[in-house]
Amino acid sequence: DICINNRYRISHRTGKGGCGVVYSATDLQSNEEVAVKLMNAYKTSVHSSVFQDEREINNTLKGGIGIPRVRWSGYQCEFAVFIMDALGPSLNDLFLFCGRKFSLKTILLIADQALSRIRFLHSKGYVHRDIKPSNFLMGTGKHGNLLYLIDFGIGKNFSEAELCKDVEDHRQPGTSLYATTNHHNRREQSWRDDLEALGYTLVYLASGSLPWVSLPSDNTREEREQLTKEMKERLSGEELCDGVLPKEFATYINYVQGLTFGDKPDYAYLQRLFRNCFKAQGFKYDHVYDWTKKLFDEMQAGMDNEGAEMHNDGAGMENEGQPIDNQGRSGDGVKVDLRHEGYLAHKMGLIITEHPYQTGSPSHLTLSASLSNLYSNQTSQ
C-alpha cells in the first residue's frame, strides 16, 4: 500500500483541485479516516509556493471553528502533503444531491455559518480569494451540522494585498463564475471580494444558476469573460435576487459591492440581516438542512418498505419498519444520525469510490514512483 510518513495509508481519491489531488486514507496508529492533499511541489515553483502559503495560513487559523485540523504537513519524496481530518460532502455535492436548488431555510443556515468562517479568516489578516460552493464542506458525526471553509492555497495576507491594490495582475486567481469585478479587472482582492463572492454563491445555490452562466457558447473565452464582468457591474442586488431570494440578500449584495478596497465590512450587520430574515420567516434553528430532510425521507421510506415486505412474508420483528419521528429517532427510540458522512456519501455516490491503488516495496524509490504514478494518473483524469 502507498503510505505517507509511514503512517497514513492511501485508499481512494475524493477530489481534485487546481494544485493537487485529495485522497481518503487511514491513520494506521488510530485507525481513523483522514484526508490527504497531495501536490507535486517540484513540478512548478508555483505549487511549492502554494504549499508554503497554505501551510502558513493553516498554522495561523489553527483551532478556529469550522477550520479543518491539519494533523501533519511536510514533504514526501517530491510531493508536498497535508494530512487533515476527514470531512463530509461539499456544498456543491449536496446541491447536486438536492436537485440543484436549496430552500430559503438552508440558504440562511449556510449564509450565517459562511459569514462566520469568512469573518474569522479576515480577523487573522487573510483574504481567501476563491469563495465558492466546493470550498465549503460539512463536518461529520457530532460535527455534522458544522460548515467548514477549506482550500487556503491561493489565500493572501491583506497587508501584502494592500501593497498591490493598484497593480494589474493578469494571473489573478479564483473561479470566474463567483469572482468579483476586481478579479475580472485583474485587480487585487480584499475583504469585500470574499463577501461579494459569497453573495453570488448564495444566489447560485438558491436558484441553480447565475445570469452569466447562460452566455452564448459560441463566444470566445475572452468574450465571455468580458460579458460576465459587464453583467456583474450592471446588475444590482435587487436584479440578481428578484424572484429568488428576499430583499435582505439584495441589501447584502449592494452593501458589499459598495465597499472600497480598504473598507472593513460590518460583519455583525450582515449577519443580522440574515438572522432577522430567518426569524421573520418563522424558521427554527434545528439544523435540519435540505439534505438532512431528503435522507430522512429516504430512510423512512426504506424502513416502511422493509416493514411491509416483512409483514407480507409473515415475518415481523417487533420494532422493524417503524417510522422515524421528527427528532430522528426510530420507533424504538434509537437515535439515527442522519449527518453521518458514510451514509450520506454512499447515498450520493459522490465521496466513496472503489478504486484502491496497490503498490510494491515501501522503499523510498518505490514510494516516490508510486506517488508519481498515482498523482499523474489522477491529475490527467
From TrEMBL:
Coiled-coil segments on the chain, per record: none
Recorded GO MF terms: ATP binding; protein serine/threonine kinase activity
Recorded superkingdom: Eukaryota
Transmembrane regions listed in the UniProt entry: none
Domain Protein kinase: 8-274
InterPro entries per the UniProt record, alphabetical: CK1_Ser-Thr_kinase (IPR050235), Kinase-like_dom_sf (IPR011009), Prot_kinase_dom (IPR000719), Ser/Thr_kinase_AS (IPR008271)
Record keywords: Kinase, Transferase
PANTHER family: CASEIN KINASE-RELATED
Protein name per Swiss-Prot or TrEMBL: non-specific serine/threonine protein kinase
The organism of origin for this protein: Dichotomopilus funicola
